[in-house]
Amino acid sequence: MADDPDSNPPRTVYEGRYQRMVVRGTWEYSERTHPGGLAAIIIAVTPDDRVLFVEQFRIPLQARTIEMPAGLVGDIDAGESIEQSSIRELEEETGWTAGHAEVLMTGPTSSGASSEKIAFVRATGLRKVGAGGGDASEDITVHEVPRAEAAAWLARKLEQGYELDAKLWAGLWMIDHNLDGSPRGR
């Protein structure tokens, strides 16, 4: 078999600070270089029922995107948990902190192109502590959108030419539902 892992060991063709490009048999894919190769997307609703979104220019797309707050797990401290990373990233990107973070599920982001996995994390007990906007290397605009209007707001942003992270729709669904589809008590 051409892609048998035992007969085709991986070969790194490029390695940078955050990613490496690997060839294994006929597959070309990227891997995260930080421990665990995991990112977190944070589902956060403020006490006044507003969903937190972030807007930023993404160089690979050459476009502005709308996303939920997100970040790499363990990129600053290898011992940091998913929950700790999520709260740190939420505060850094949005200026809101959370009293609690709950991992809902973890899965691949693009299984044909990357080994990266992402954890959906629900942040609760939110409290405003700063302006947000990211660290010195980021230029993030924070949007606080009424939950009842979030889907329509996203549709308008798409019409305006923004790129929308497809995980947004899963995140919106997870605000009001448990993973088994049952309604989530608020």
From TrEMBL:
It catalyses: GDP-alpha-D-mannose + H2O = alpha-D-mannose 1-phosphate + GMP + 2 H(+). Keywords: Hydrolase. GO terms for biological process: nucleoside phosphate metabolic process; ribose phosphate metabolic process. Pfam families: NUDIX. InterPro entries: NUDIX_hydrolase-like_dom_sf (IPR015797), NUDIX_hydrolase_dom (IPR000086). It comes from the Bacteria. PROSITE patterns: NUDIX (PS51462). GO terms for molecular function: hydrolase activity. Its cofactor is Mg(2+). SUPFAM superfamilies: Nudix. Residues 35-168 form the Nudix hydrolase domain. Belongs to the Nudix hydrolase family. NudK subfamily. This is GDP-mannose pyrophosphatase. It comes from Pseudoxanthomonas suwonensis.
